Amino acid sequence: MKKILFIIFIFIIGLAYCSKSFAKNQYDILINEIAWMGSTVSANDEWIELFNNTEENISLDGWVLKSDDGSPEVKLLGKINSKSFYLLERTNDNSVKNIKADKIYSGSISNSGENFILYDNQLTIIDRASFSSGWPFGSNTTKQTIERSDFNSWQTSSISNGTPKENNSLGLPKVVVKKIKSESLLKEEKSDNESSIATASLNNQDEAINDILKKEGDKSNYWMIFMIIGGVILIMGSVILFWKIKFKK
Fold first, then answer.
1. In the predicted model, is pLDDT for residue 132 greater than 80?
2. Distance from C-alpha of 70 to C-alpha of 205, rounded to nearest angstrom
3. C-alpha distances in angstroms, 9 versus 71, 77, 240?
4. Pseudo-torsion of CA 193, 198, 204, 206, nearest 10°?
5. C-alpha distances in angstroms, 231 versus 8, 13, 217?
6. What is the pLDDT of residues 196-246, one digit of tens each?
7. What is the C-alpha separation between 53 and 118, in angstroms, rounded?
């Protein structure tokens, strides 16, 4: 009996751990900034920044950030805290001076463009940065990075060498702002007319995001349903086994 209870306990602990390991929706983790051109020190000082767009810490163990051409392909590990950044530096921890990398990777980012896809540990697509036809933003001359401005829009950073592990040069992407900035704050900051426009824009953005999430679907929920059903079956089987052993005695 003690062995059966111990097995059930271990399974429940594992189920709880797994539920914290998966992002629940697309855009929970954003590909937030890319230094495809390197830095003012060296063209090899490339880096990529992720941002946790949720209120919970998320484990990145088993996640992969990869380019369509196969390089770079980065196997992630560790965790990214709520509303925090995760920095990937090329080759060594010197690509970004005085800021510790969360992950070192190999392989260069092509100056002619890349199509990055972020997968979770169930191969669900969480985010994309699709620039295979060329980088529309960022500058190889001034070493300004390309940074996220919206859930599907990008811009050139106003700062040379970008803002690794910090808010983007023009603030957080709007997909993040919508979660932390209330309508009342918008009204306080704007005139009546400007506030109405900002509020309408924000509502339209919410509708657009919700529409995308509905279309894409939350694939990780299927995995959680499977785990829960498995847990129920295991518990029922354990109870039946227990009663069979008891009646045999």
1. yes
2. 33
3. 42, 26, 17
4. -140
5. 8, 11, 24
6. 444 444 455 445 545 544 444 444 455 556 667 766 777 777 777 767 776
7. 14
pTM of the predicted structure, to 2 decimals: 0.67
Burial of 24 (0-12, 13-18, 19+ CB in 10 A): middle
The token duo for 241 is 């086994």
**C-beta separation of 211 from 204 below 8 A:** no
Contact predicate 191/167, CB 8 Å: no
- Judged on CB neighbours under 10 Å (0-12, 13-18, 19+), 4 is middle
- Indicate if the alpha-carbon torsion angle 34, 115, 55, 200 is positive or negative: positive
- Domains in the chain, please, with CATH? 2-20+221-248 (no CATH), 28-171 (2.60.40.1260)
Radius of gyration of the chain (CA): 22
pLDDT tens, position by position, 13-37: 555 555 444 556 889 999 999 999 9
